[in-house]
Amino acid sequence: MERDPLRYALLILLLVPHGAGGIVLGRKAAAGGGVRGETETYAVIFDAGSTGSRVHVFRFDQNMDLVNIGDDIELFVAVKPGLSSYDDDPQEAANSLIPLLEEAEGVIPEELQPTTPIRLGATAGLRILGEEKSEKILKAVRDLFQTNSSLEYKSEWVTVLEGYQEGSYLWVAMNYLLGNLGNKYSDTVGVVDLGGGSVQMAYALSKEAAANAPNISIGNNPYVTKQLLNETNYYLYAYSYLHYGLFAARAEILEAVDGPYSYCVLGGYAGSYKYSGKVYNASASPSGSSYSKCRVEAIKALKINEICTYQDCTFGGVWSGGGGDGQKNLYVASSFYYTAAEVGFIDSETPNALVRPSDFKKAAKIACKSSLEEANVTYPNVTEDNLPYICMDLVYEYTLLVDGFGLKPTQEITLVTKVEYGDSYVNAAWPLGSAIEVVSSQSPQSPALKSFRRLWIQ
Ligand SMILES: *[C@@H]1O[C@H](CO)[C@@H](O)[C@H](O)[C@H]1NC(C)=O
Ligand SMILES: *[C@@H]1O[C@H](CO)[C@@H](O)[C@H](O)[C@H]1NC(C)=O
Ligand SMILES: *[C@@H]1O[C@H](CO)[C@@H](O)[C@H](O)[C@H]1NC(C)=O
Ligand SMILES: *[C@@H]1O[C@H](CO)[C@@H](O)[C@H](O)[C@H]1NC(C)=O
Ligand SMILES: *[C@@H]1O[C@H](CO)[C@@H](O)[C@H](O)[C@H]1NC(C)=O
Ligand SMILES: *[C@@H]1O[C@H](CO)[C@@H](O)[C@H](O)[C@H]1NC(C)=O
């Protein structure tokens, strides 16, 4: 097989944790590198996102605690672009994962490789491509894992995740890292995850609230699933809004605009915005961007006023879950964090920060008053691609939280990219939840694994 040196060059991304902020945190060995016990287990999870592919390798001890792999608490490697960028060449798509696969296999002891599960979850990028194209890509990935990997592979482990799974996995990951699994539902945290293509919300409901849930959501997935985690039953609300991730929402906003320009685009910019194979005209109005006019565009794009057939909806006619104590403490991840860090209203050196939705509004009002040229000076950490959209992104994030999800502008929320875990920081991302699920569901294959703690029983 031919190996494209360019693809290898992309591995320099290895040193940069995901997100635009480029935060590098010291992750020191928790237990001197850890002693390999007989009951440890590994899991390899690929996150095939819309903007890139990433692999996470986790190592658990017999108590289902994470332990170090070398000096780090997880192995994390990323490449760009994502699988959906190779929509006409499924083999190239699969090949883009080879360097990640090699890195992952390299850290797993040989004798454990045949029992180490390898999974791939594709998210919004492949969902948007449609079934035919995405199946071809997944087939090429399955062939690669089957023929070229020494790890334990099952074809059903390589899938497009259902939206609710993405949200549930992140909820499990976050509450696991915070040590909340086993607590009553009101002592867990809710999660919001703003990706490139979709945004997820997940939180635990009371048993009573769960009993009143509509049976089936718009996307035909259940809104609420029952999960047994660390011997405790949870009723988990989870929903993924396709087309409302940050990059997808720009396209929605540019499409929702009446007239030739958007009041969300910074003055002085006249260009086009490409998303998912389509090109949108992105030109500023002659008077520049405007916070209040951009709000109108964002509200329109979010379809706040769509008919709600339930007691309470967020936006687009989606059931809200009814709120409650499982949502009072919200951890808000991915692009919410990256935008705040790039704009500079949180410190990009800290992996999490307590803010309020009104902080996004405040930052938006300032950004929307700037021209592109001024913003280039004011926001040195915003990348060139994002700069024309900095008013749009902040307004959208505020609108999504307050008008979309119904938060009070003054409610405290935690912006998060990594969670402190022992002496380390772990990425707040769904793959850890998927790892916990697959490791919990594995049948003990050796007597040593029999004592293995099953955290997540389904
Ligand atoms: C994958 O496995 C096939 C069959 O064993 C082999 O021909 C091919 O070279 C392998 N590819 C890589 C990238 O290792
Ligand atoms: C499970 O719950 C117990 C107490 O209820 C707690 O000590 C333990 O850390 C939890 N395990 C995990 C992996 O969260
Ligand atoms: C959901 O379906 C069950 C039976 O399948 C029914 O008893 C229940 O009333 C339904 N709930 C709602 C909210 O429609
Ligand atoms: C985009 O809109 C601007 C403002 O109306 C117009 O001048 C320009 O020609 C448009 N560009 C494209 C590619 O349609
Ligand atoms: C840009 O990032 C650097 C490094 O993280 C930081 O020290 C600086 O304060 C940031 N600047 C702004 C304006 O946020
Ligand atoms: C921003 O400033 C840099 C130099 O400081 C310049 O190279 C770049 O073209 C500017 N970008 C915009 C969009 O004005």
Automatic annotation (TrEMBL):
Which Pfam families does this entry report, sorted A to Z? GDA1_CD39
Please indicate which superkingdom the organism of origin belongs to. Eukaryota
Please tell me whether the keyword Transferase is annotated for this protein.
Answer: no
Biological process (GO), any one: nucleoside diphosphate catabolic process
Q: Which reaction does it catalyse?
A: a ribonucleoside 5'-triphosphate + 2 H2O = a ribonucleoside 5'-phosphate + 2 phosphate + 2 H(+)
**E.C. number, please?**
3.6.1.5
Q: Does the keyword Hydrolase apply?
A: yes
Q: Name one GO cellular component term.
A: membrane
Binding annotation for ATP: 196-200
List the active-site residues.
166
In the UniProt record, the signal sequence range is: 1-22
Q: Which UniProt keywords apply?
A: ATP-binding, Hydrolase, Nucleotide-binding, Signal
Give one GO term, molecular function aspect: apyrase activity
Q: Which family, according to UniProt?
A: Belongs to the GDA1/CD39 NTPase family.
Q: Give a short account of what the protein does.
A: Catalyzes the hydrolysis of phosphoanhydride bonds of nucleoside tri- and di-phosphates.
| Protein name as it appears in the record | apyrase
